[in-house]
């Protein structure tokens, strides 16, 4: 009796799932059928062959060489790099501002506390688009190139963007960055090896200065040995524009600042919540042991709060990457506006372009969440 | 013996005067150490310097009356673009004779939040109201069945924002609940499909989904069938919000003690009965605050529809800022925009926190 009913339940379950699956397959089949009919009627090619065709449109800001005569594939790469660039610099700035505001929000100074709270509430309750168009308007309202603000005659800020010195040999810089990574990694590995041999690891001195020194020394050493000298291309005023250096276009600056300030409010809230979530006993114990408040916060509370912050911060970082797609509002050529916008409009291959864009974002988000999970695992192993 | 009977009456500890308490508070919260005192002084100086200036620019010297930009005070804010185009900001290009319909729709949307406030209200009444609200709003705003129709191109301004937000939220809720239940289902196919959907939607930007709505959905429909852009955007916002909502509801489902499921099972309840009568009522009551937070997110997200050419309030504002008639006053327009969103979202977030505190209070 029991087995009979059990089997019937299982059979019903399998039937149900089969039906759902069938329904999904049918819907997808119907959509694909419609799509093929429509594409034939509109005379649009399908497949990713268009990536090798000539793009023919210009991109105002690029990290790798690009000209309108290059392919759509290259344009996609330029867009991807722009997305990554703006995401990375926004993550850095947002973390800085966010931690500052968050620390201010838990300060014992009433005035600072309230001011930070007000700024956080204001920043997070205004949509990112509004932040963005306001910053963009501000960038365009800057003085013209002739009256540009200058800092030590090296940086120039005008309504054409920010002029910065730029190394002449891109390849040398790329290798320098690789060497930096190698230097830092080798220092970390060396520490690991020493740890593995030592029987008791007690109070070891700080490690990050050594890692930093290695990261800086290795590329310098290689440059010195190979005789490479980095030539910085410094911008100079010339006529109606600038000569030399690189231009950070106003679109990039507006997107960077808007993303940073908007996301900083979320990071600040996370910092506040995590700090306040640390058990009250910890604060009291620190006080009883005679810790000054500043030191107690830095050495006792912050390490514990960090653990609680990781999931939220991961979320915010992923949102920054996803929100960088708002570049399309001000016309910054990142992934969505290059491949999902101009390429799509020129080729008409909507399905391929949008799938390409979505797949790229999926991969980026997956990588971030994997990295942060690894970090989370490591700091959870550290124990309190 | 006699002395002992003279016991002094119990007295309260001496109460500090108001001035003493104030000065103590000021010392403790603003000047606890040398560093903090310096910081406080610097901040106070900064505030003293910029608050009068800001007040002058924003309110005292600002222009509120007039009809053209010539009436503006060049050294202060000029709120005329917002005041003169107020109807455009609120109603968009909605026909003037029909504006009562928009007002009524706004009132109905606000009514939903007010109803949440009354805890003693019958659940079924609230549910019925929430089910009717989107249909009623769509009918009121779009017309048909007795009301003259209004084309989608006439929709703009706050009307679009409020409509997309409210209807999106209410339709996304049942979908989100189903997805959350599917994700916790024991049937592998259903679970896999739900997980795929939720994770896929959550890992791509809204803008790419909106692009999909404006450029790709057409290709998947049978030839000859076409939806208007407003409906397509609305559908995408619903599908998008549902994925996020599923995660919120899942959090609520997970936080419910296992005993509730076991008790239902012991009473011989089936799956849908368990969910409908026992689990979901508890979960939904607990998830009202996070769902409100989600609504704030959706409300802010609706501003992105300007990317696909739907003129919401941001679209109207930027076209006003770019118009020759009001050139040079974009800061005032954007400040108004920021304040508009700030006031609504801040009020809603406070309301969510209030409900949350009430829930905590009820539980303990």
TrEMBL record, chain A:
GO molecular function, one term: transmembrane transporter activity
PROSITE patterns: ABC_TM1 (PS50928)
TM regions (residue ranges): 12-32, 75-101, 122-142, 172-191, 211-232, 353-375
Keyword Transmembrane: yes
Family matches, as SUPFAM superfamilies: MetI-like (SSF161098)
Membrane topology: Multi-pass membrane protein
GO cellular component, as recorded: ATP-binding cassette (ABC) transporter complex
Domain ABC transmembrane type-1: from-to ranges: 80-376
Keywords linked to the UniProt accession: Amino-acid transport, Cell membrane, Membrane, Transmembrane, Transmembrane helix, Transport
Keyword Transmembrane helix recorded: yes
Compartments it resides in: Cell inner membrane; Cell membrane
Similarity remark: Belongs to the binding-protein-dependent transport system permease family. HisMQ subfamily.
Name this polypeptide is given: Amino acid ABC transporter permease
Organism of derivation: Pseudomonas trivialis
Automatic annotation (TrEMBL), chain B:
Keywords in alphabetical order: Amino-acid transport, Cell membrane, Membrane, Transmembrane, Transmembrane helix, Transport
Principal cellular location given in the protein's record: membrane
Biological process per Gene Ontology, one example term: amino acid transport
Cellular localization per UniProt: Cell inner membrane; Cell membrane
One annotated GO molecular function: transmembrane transporter activity
Domain ABC transmembrane type-1: 158-352
Signal sequence segment: none
Bilayer disposition of the protein: Multi-pass membrane protein
This protein's GO CC annotations: ATP-binding cassette (ABC) transporter complex
Keyword Membrane tagged: yes
Transmembrane segments: 34-55, 100-118, 125-141, 161-181, 193-217, 229-246, 304-327, 333-352
Keyword Membrane: yes
CDD domains, A to Z: TM_PBP2
Gene3D superfamilies cross-referenced by the UniProt entry: MetI-like (1.10.3720.10)
Coiled coil (residue ranges): none
UniProt family annotation: Belongs to the binding-protein-dependent transport system permease family. HisMQ subfamily.
Name of the molecule in the record: Amino acid ABC transporter permease
